[in-house]
Amino acid sequence: MNHRQHFAGILGLSLLLASCGQTSTPPLHSAPGPTPTAPGQAVPELDGDRIAHQLIVGLDAGGDLNAVLTALDARLVDRNERLGAVLIEVPQGRSLEKAAGLLRGVAGVRYAEPNYVASKPVQLESQSPLGAQSVYGGLNDPEIGYQWFLRSMKAAEAWKTTTGKGIRIAVADEDIDRHHPDLAANIAYPGYDSPNNTLITPATPHDGMGQHGTWVAGTAAAVGNNGIGGAGVAPDASIVPVTITHSGTGASYWDSARAFVWSVNGPDNLAPGDAGDADTPAGRSGYVDIVNYSFGGDNYSQILREGIEYVLQHGVVFVTSAGNTPTTGSSSGAWVPGVISVAATTATDTRTTFSNRGGHLSVAAPGENIWVPGTRSRINDPSDNTYAYVNGTSFAGPATAGAAALVLAAAAEKDASGAINRVNLTPAQVRHILEDTAHSPTGGYTTDLGYGVVRADRAVDMALNDASNRVEKGASLDMRFVAQSDPSVGIPLVGVTLKGSERRPDQLLYGQSAAGAFVYPSGHTSFYEIDAGDYQLFASGPRPILTGTAPGSSVASVSLSPGERRTLGDQAGVPLAVALPADPYEPNNTPAQATAITYGQGLEAVMGERDTDLYRFSAQAGETAFIGTQTLLGSPDLKVRVLDGSGKELAVNASFRSGLRDAALAFRVPASGQYFAEITDEGVGGAFNTYLVGLTRWKGQAPEQNEAGRVTNDTFGGVDWSKALGTAVGETYEATLATNTDVDTFRLSARAGQTLVIDTLAHESGKPDLMLGLFDAQGQLLASNDDFTGQDSMVTFEVPSDGEYFVAAGSYNAESKGTYTISFMEKPGQ
Amino acid sequence: MVTLSGAVAQGRGQEAVAGATVTVKGGGTAQTDANGLFSVSAPKGLAEVTISKAGHASTRVVGLNTAETTEIEEILRPAFDAAATTKAPSMSLSVLRGDPAEPGNWDDLETGEVLNTYGEDITIAVKVQVDDPEMNTFKTGVASIEVAGGTSGHLNAGLTRNLFGDPRGDVTSFSFSASELAAYQGKVNLHVTAYDLNGNRVHLIQPLNVLSPKNTNAVLAPQNVNPLAVTFADNLTFGPQSVQPEVRAALLEQLSGLKASALNQPGLSPMAAPDDASLWVDVPFSYPSKDLPRAFELWRSFDGKTFSKVFSAAPQRVAAGTSGRYMMRDTSPLLTPGREVFYKVRAVSDSGAANSEMGNTTPLGRYTVNLVSPSQAQTLVSLKPTFTWTSTGASDLTVSNVIVLDRVQSEGATVAWLSEEMENQERAEYNFDGSAAQPQLQPYHAYEWQLASVTINAEGDALAVAADYFNLYNVYAAKSGPVHEFVTGGAQ
């Protein structure tokens, strides 16, 4: 039960009675005598300025209530012991004045008077019939008075020109309560459910989790002038619902980026303008005109950047929140060049204490005490007009997206009836309009508020003034970094920095070249919808911390004019002097070219773009071969297939365990003969995707020896080697750390100069979080590894001399346990 | 007439409000001084106090009994919206006696009327009436026992309940169970504060008479009272700002990892919001017996002689881990940098009370750092740069770490360098400690650098944090310190 609302209803009557100050609403004390009628059971009738037929009678302590009631033939309604008074109801037809007079003769009566009523201007429940006087902006929404953000942004003045009708805003967020009575009329279908990769239709139920999306959608475009609740900044704009998460803890970069691309392409998944594209509305750049993204995080994300670039590249506006850390440091989303990033303000045009700062901000908008629609507590009740108070840069974003919708609507070309024919502003033009008309308390740009607080009225005025021709357009810069030694190879992980626009000469813009895994080909990077100007460009890569090789560099001066789309470099791209990882086994793309591999060998190779690597091996019937892959560099998504001599697939694995991009499998050899292991990349591959493939004999479960040993953080101590399992290069075991403190030990012989490779795979991520150590026969640690890929360990070591060596496997800091495979291999000699 | 004195601040642990007008109904008027302190005459008994200042919302205190209390701490917020009303709301309470479904079971409480708990749970309805209800409403409030709860995100001040307003209904309610109230016995005040949309505040004091089961454990003197004063450089926020605890946990995990791979990392969170504080004192202590008292009381003095109670709490509510260790936090606006403060902890049961020895500290003023070189957006920086900075407000010892992040373009491996701690230094050569991920930075590449820095006095009982985004010092993740972006030049 919603206690609060129930209570309010009951008190409604009591307050009316109480406001005249004559009596308070007493509890019902049980007392002998006539049973009183509980107040509130029937709504008493008003008679002018009093409750009809009621008298309040003051009684002395010794006063006789029964005498009073009998004298007037009245019934007791209520009593107030503390004040010594009772409330009685006299029969119809008896005037109260006469009744009061009759009581003068009754002993103990101190006074008798009508139960007067004071009128109360406040209504307990908001309701406002159409045509009632508007509190703000000419709209009849009764709670618009609580939405100070509209007044701060001067929305009402902007509404004289437009309320955003015809502009479509994708709200990429938690699931929106799309049938909320103050949102439903503005929702446009179909929308998109990114985590499930399905469309959202009017029949799609709410996911039961999302709150945030409803608040965000309402800030931008809650329905205006419908007599309920409040209104959004663009009260007639359309909201295209794009759900990016069904979890309360956040949205993945992947789902977000995919949602951005969908917002541009629409349900037919064809880019606007491509052959066959049928769902981009005529005269529009994309399925939607604006994307709002009120999410973010501290980590840079290439995927997110590519998704956002896709939006900007296609001429769709991208608005995002600055974040609430508060930090001045970088974060994803808000730091992508070309977006409109928004800080949060208070009603005094100051930054809220939580709003992120920095040189990347565009503008600021209200973000505190925002009264907006919330997901209904009774989700199936079409009249449940849930609203909520919210705080955060999450709401400054959609408030600005609403302002952007007003700007687009004002500037758009329209037909005779006023409907939009063509949206004619680019994302940079919208950004420049909002920035140039923002209110800056200091008169200039600040890292607190960007160019200042959004003023929708001035922005709309600027939009009306031939904006598509007069407002400065942005510029775009494209480039593809290629290997100087082989221009067909795109170089991923090249970091690019631009400095020196005309508007903001101090601002740094960042990017990184693609790995070819998502939208853009490997080596590609771009800056869309940035300010014109004379830039210095600094680029180097791939990142040595990931590749271990010296990066190539490129430094250039680039002058960009408004509206220009420039490609840097020549036909081939921008060459970088980079040493590409070599794959000594290429070409091995067909069975005829397959590289020979024998049991015990671990080979390092490169999974190039659209590459296939084939390895051939001989095996005996009844053996079980274990083929494992291990990413060494880059991020290939490896897949292993075993083929017979005729190319028929006998076994396949794409991922050894959930979430892992490396593959491995155990293959029971049916007949003696030759087989092929085929390694491919389920992504596109890349010049820097290096991996290890190993072939070993599967030995099954290692017996549990319960060896003694201690792991503290990443150090082994007190290991008892006496029970070490004898193994050899070329074997793979399945072993288990039975408890957090379990240590498994292995013993093998090796030769001087042999490069041992010991690789492990936990069966469940982090269970165990393995630690590996390689020791000599004296128990001295030679090499160790904690996390090589995720929490799986791998040790590579060139053995100094012939002899026995020992391997210990434990869990990091004795914190985990579980089952894992361990493979003992060697790298073949040069 | 009696003299009523007190302090006015913008929020718990926040800046003092000078020049505020304090008016007592039937008494005098006074102004707060530079430290927000005032002294004013008041009638003896029930008093109503109004505090106001231009540009600020106002505060009204109702139900103050000057026969019992002559010192108060109040909060005065800046007006959220200059155009909106600055009249404080009014508030009335009623207590539930019986089935809440029965409308007559709510008993209105008169101002100053003592509410007996009779050893039971209590449920109280709060009705707040604001000025200008068409544009204004009751927004949030706090009900707390013994101490008025403030806006601090981490209260540690008596039992508290958060109240939330709704423009569509003006009544809300809260409860305290008998077991929660068992820390108290006899007379104790219930404080209910409510804010409207503009920051106008009403603070109602409702006396309770708590009847609790007797705790007759023998009491011992608490030990090891070692106050630690903590000052921040900014009006900071407590923790990542999300309403759901799991979001906060996910964010903290993400920050401490910083090695997350880019794909499929659930790391983006909705940006919803705040709360603030900047100076407090933590008073840790131990209790030498497993037979716990009914309550611990924190007492404070500014002269080492006259002590007044800050608040009491049941031992379980202030336990800091296991094995008899506790901590109580004082966030009073009376705490001032440079003003020495003394604490005693008293153990209380129905068989008596025992005081600890006194502990003391002097809170530091704000400590801030200013990054000098590499400067913001500097290009062609050396691949082994020297980082330099200056500071203000340093005490006897400063501890700093340089943090260089490759966060703007990365796929994991974002920490280029997290230096070892440096004492009393204001410069550091890149990788002086050999701990950087690479011996030199990548050429023509963008980085950002920041400091974690804290200063501490020689006694070790007061510290001030300038910045500590990653909570290296385990005091608090102070995230809003300065950050500089820079771009390296070529290989030398």
UniProtKB/TrEMBL annotation, chain A:
GO biological process, one term: proteolysis
Single Gene Ontology MF annotation: peptidase activity
Domain Peptidase C-terminal archaeal/bacterial: 742-808
Peptidase S8/S53 domain mapped to chain residues: 164-452
Segments forming domain Fervidolysin-like N-terminal prodomain: 52-115
Matches recorded under InterPro entries: Fervidolysin-like_N_prodom (IPR054399), Peptidase_C_arc/bac (IPR007280), Peptidase_S8/S53_dom (IPR000209), Peptidase_S8/S53_dom_sf (IPR036852), Peptidase_S8_His-AS (IPR022398), Peptidase_S8_Ser-AS (IPR023828), Peptidase_S8_subtilisin-like (IPR050131), Peptidase_S8_subtilisin-rel (IPR015500)
Domain of life: Bacteria
Keywords: Hydrolase, Protease, Serine protease
Keyword Hydrolase found: yes
Active site annotation, chain numbering: D173 (charge relay system), H212 (charge relay system), S394 (charge relay system)
Pfam families for this protein: Fervidolysin_NPro-like (PF22148), Peptidase_S8 (PF00082), PPC (PF04151)
Region listing for Disordered, in residue ranges: 25-44
Family (UniProt): Belongs to the peptidase S8 family.
Protein name per the record: Subtilase-type serine protease
UniProtKB/TrEMBL annotation, chain B:
InterPro entries: CarboxyPept-like_regulatory
Superkingdom assignment: Bacteria
Name recorded for this polypeptide: Carboxypeptidase regulatory-like domain-containing protein
Species per Swiss-Prot/TrEMBL record: Deinococcus piscis
